[in-house]
Design brief:
433 residues, alpha+beta, Rossmann fold, Dna Ligase, domain 1, D-amino Acid Aminotransferase, Chain A, domain 1, five-stranded parallel sheet, five-stranded antiparallel sheet, 23 strands, 26% strand, globular, binds glycine
Length: 433
């Protein structure tokens, strides 16, 4: 059985671990023991060590000592740091772009330049700013806070701030943009648009793409899309791979842009395989581009990998052979539903104290839901503890309808999750901004 190393520790990696362990022996280097990854390592007779996945010497040694043959990375900073480049140097088969290939995520200006060239009608009016004078001039053109500030570089999906939501008033927006400029020497100021946000992800072998079911994410911390931005509090997908406010031609447009983007990356010799994540807005005047990521979204990965009909390890082989196609990478026709559970301070206050909580995992599983651990350590019995101040674990269900999947998830969670924890009860509503 092929030995496959997975780097990264979130809910996205927990579902990747499940998928990899169905066909390969799973290996992992984790900074703390993620209970889901531990479970799938053990089920597949693999091995994990506790250590820093950014430590290239450690990765090299583990790969050599264990004769590891393949490597999957889908975490933004591990990609930027070149862990896939290292895996390639070691002769492993890989899923994920090289550091240069992931430039479409870590350079917002590079991504915007590509889209301006390939689909100018999808670009929202914006300016890439490199000086304080240019920033003052750009902000002075707005009457109010109807603009969006996008920092350059990786921000874990949390750096983009929208006027009227994440900052109030021009002055606050200006101060945030100034801090981004000071940090990275570059910041993007973009018009704020009204519409509905959605994600189109595509698996790719670097030539061909296969579009996964379109997902709807819940980036705001509180119900009715209030409060600060987060990595995502929940996610859903529909049985037809679309969302109620989208036509097939909308998705085709996004897929077309992704396909052309892959060609463009190849032209720039930026090696890419794995997943391209496209964030888009459906507006009155058409589909608008928001961002590219060079990886699966989290929690989006939980929805789309659970919707896979073809085993992930077969897709991995097709990616190595550059034979990926819609006929060898299929998805089930069902509704998928994910809710993230977080500590009370998540995205609100920084807190160094770990949050200890109880979770009746068995009762949740018995009710037909799945659990994917993220920033959580198991203590003993039903006792767990947070690691840092990130999302704790995701509850996932599938169903014949959105209502059924939603009811199954929330019923499974009832009375089985410590009351001190927090989660949104409105996943399933489709909001417009
Ligand atoms: N859920 C958004 C992201 O992973 O970037």
């Amino acid at each position: 059985m092929k030995k496959c190393l997975l780097l990264g520790n979130g809910g996205r990696e927990a579902v990747l671990a499940e998928q990899i362990s169905k066909g390969y022996a799973l290996y992992s280097i984790m900074p703390y023991i993620n209970p889901s990854i531990e479970e799938y390592v053990e089920k597949s007779n693999g091995k994990y060590i506790v250590g820093d996945p950014f430590d290239k010497e450690l990765v090299k040694k583990f790969v050599k000592d264990e004769n590891i043959e393949a490597c999957v990375v889908s975490q933004d900073n591990l990609l930027q740091e070149g862990l896939i480049d290292l895996a390639k140097e070691l002769g492993l088969e890989t899923f994920g772009p090289t550091s240069k290939g992931s430039k479409i995520e870590w350079s917002k200006t590079y991504a915007l330049e590509i889209v301006k060239k390939l689909a100018p009608e999808m670009v929202i009016k914006n300016e890439a700013i490199t000086s304080q004078e240019a920033l003052e001039r750009a902000i002075s053109q707005y009457q109010d806070d109807s603009f969006v500030v996008k920092p350059e570089g990786l921000t874990g999906g949390k750096g983009v701030k929208v006027g009227g939501i994440h900052f109030k008033g021009k002055e606050e927006g200006y101060e945030y943009a100034k801090s981004c400029l000071e940090e990275a020497g570059r910041v993007i100021v973009q018009d704020k648009v009204e519409g509905r946000e959605f994600t189109v992800m595509a698996l790719t072998d670097g030539e061909h793409i296969v579009v996964t079911p379109t997902t709807f994410d819940y980036p705001y911390r509180f119900e009715e899309d209030k409060g600060p931005g987060t990595g995502g509090m929940g996610c859903l997908s529909f049985e037809n791979g679309r969302l109620p406010f989208l036509e097939q031609e909308d998705i085709d447009k996004c897929a077309n842009l992704i396909q052309k983007t892959i060609k463009e990356l190849n032209k720039d010799s930026l090696e890419f395989s794995g997943v391209i994540y496209g964030g888009f807005f459906k507006c009155k005047d058409g589909i608008k581009f928001i961002e590219f990521n060079a990886r699966f979204g989290d929690p989006e990965a939980i929805n789309v990998l659970n919707a896979l009909e073809t085993p992930f390890t077969e897709i991995f082989e097709h990616i190595q052979n550059k034979t990926l196609s819609a006929s060898n990478c299929k998805f089930k026709k069902n509704y998928t539903f994910t809710v993230y559970v977080v500590s009370p301070n998540y995205a609100i206050k920084s807190s160094k104290e770990p949050c200890t909580f109880t979770l009746n995992k068995e009762a949740i599983l018995e009710k037909g839901a799945k659990i994917y651990f993220a920033s959580t350590k198991h203590l003993e019995g039903n006792q767990y503890s947070s690691v840092g101040n990130s999302r704790l674990f995701a509850v996932h269900t599938e169903g014949e309808s959105l209502e059924k999947a939603k009811e199954k998830a929330y019923k499974a969670m009832e009375n089985n999750i410590d009351e001190i924890l927090s989660y949104r009860r409105d996943i399933g509503e489709i909001y417009e901004h």
